[in-house]
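Technical note accompanying the year-one report. For the benefit of new consortium partners, we illustrate the data format agreed upon in the data management plan: each record pairs a sequence with a structure-token string. No post-processing was applied to the example shown here.
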Amino acid sequence: MLASFALHLGGAIVCAVAAAWVLRRGDIKRPDRRATVASLCITALSCGLIAALGPDAPMAQASESFRNLAWIFVLYQLFVADGRARSVAPIRPVIAALTFVEILQPVLLVLQLRYAVTSDLAVLAFEASVSFRIMVAVGALVLLHNLYGGASPATRQAFRWTAIGLAMLWLYELNYQTTAYLSGSLPTELSALRGLVFAALGALVAVGASQAGGSLMLRPSRKVTFQTLSLLLIGGYLAVMVLISESIALQRGDLARFTQVAFVFGASVFAVLWLPSKRLRGWLRVTMVKHLFQHRYDYRVEWLRFTQTLGQGGENSHSLYERVIQALADITDSPSGLLLLPNEQGSYELASRWQWRNIDVPAEAMSGQMASLLESGSFVVDLDDVRQGGNRYGEAPLLPDWLAAEPDAWALVPLLHFDRLTGVVVLSRPLAPRNLDWEDFDLLRVVGQQLASYIAEQAGHHALMESARFEEFNRRIAFVMHDIKNLASQLTLLARNAERHAENPEFRADMLVTLRNSAEKLNSLLARLGRYGAHGSDRREPFELAKVVKTVADQYSSLHPVQVIHADSCKVLADPEALEQALIHLVQNAVDASDEQFPVMLDVSTDGVMGRVEVIDSGSGMSPEFIRNGLFKPFVSSKNAGFGIGAFEARELIMAMGGRLDVESREGLGTRFAIQLPIAAAADLLARTETRAVTNSRTEVA
């Protein structure tokens, strides 16, 4: 009784305040304004009578009839406000019928007080009264549905909140009266809560009657919505579990008790394992966005998360490349991803992984033709669409086979910086499967452009640092070269003078040999140091590739097992001394990375155009980040006492001879370096083809 008094008194106060609000600040142009004020006043009076006398009092029941009649009249005024003259005529008989049924309530109340002298007549009168109220609630809901469903968009927006309040009122009345009819008496708990419903009705009607009420919308954040739906899902699950458990408990015997315990145990284990899962959260998020929001993404939240992910720093944070993948993957709830960046040949290679260790990516992850298509079209590739036969932009024949064959690969996102492709991100399929739509494409494309600027900025920063290191190195080496050149000149002069002035023939001969050898070594060092300039080495001659490889292997015979596992006969056009020096660098790196019992293997092969030497080890391997950012960068080394110039010098030597150096490596498995040099017989043809291509490109530009 105390709860019913407090709630109905609160409802009376809210309705009275709402009536005053609508009267003073409501939209004066609305035709239902006066009817709404009158209905709120009658509702406030009804709540006050129920609070004072109780819901069973005759005056309280009579006030409910006047309250219902007032709100039915408000419904009629809303039809008129919509301007649907043709719609008003058919609903007038319905309104008249509802009015007539509601007017019968006071008559039935008088008859009940005077003539219901027996319990059977009292029950009959109660059931008739409740049946009339159920009919009125159903009729009012039908009218409200017809009103809101057929209203114009402008009118619907104007009385949205009023319609919500009336729908809540009549739905509660329908459930309240139905429960009373089935139980044979007014439910005490539901009767007390009616005061709260009336208070909510007054607040909603006051909001809807104001001039700004039409544009006022309830916009909960996605986080609040997601948490609310999660709680509802958990609450529904628990309610079903309790209901089934109690149903089992109605049976008799120990078996029923055992079954109940087993069910609760199994359902609890299922809840602990399944409810916190990422797959369920992903499905719930997709369902929520699909049915509750106009747009898939909350752009403010996505931008804040994007900025926070990229701004993470410190020793324990991921590298920039990994953060780039994560920032893009978090948008689509992708659990992992890859980053492909261009190499010197124009194709794209793996630069970084994020939580995707079980996918094998070839050395040439994507061709230059596919990169050119992404650069010119600036589109996101839906890999599922391509697998199903789609070819919207001509990407199907250029898509790498390893991507088409990987079922978890979901989307290919280009990273464009000033209309130039700086990289490509491969996103894996979300745990809650869905199709990409226009909003995904737009957001991923824009975020990709932002990420491209970060990658370009880091590349520029590294270029400046490398340039500064080279400047320091060149400044120091200039003094070394000057001193060595002076020493070489002095030794040459000494040899020339000794040849003319030495008196002892034997001593002269020994001194002459020693000095000449020293001069030759110093001049050879000077030539090697000058080879890394703009022109490189011009010495090229045909020689047997396998012979040089075996010579290098023999040099390591007493240090570490180095085996030539295969040796095709092929003559390449290059500098044998430079090739030997490059092979020594690569083999030494392989030996340093391998255990003593694991040999380094050398493989010589040819395809008729290029000769190929592979240096293979089973060492610790290298990460994609180190291959991309450290392996071929001077002064960057993974060794404690290394200078970080061996791999860089090897690649420079090979490129100066017109060759190419590729590398494939997996952490914990090993590394494979591959040197490719032109065959002597095909070298002229390759040179003419390259010259013709350069000439044609210059002609097109002109």
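Partners are asked to follow this layout when depositing records. The first helix runs from residue 2 to 25.
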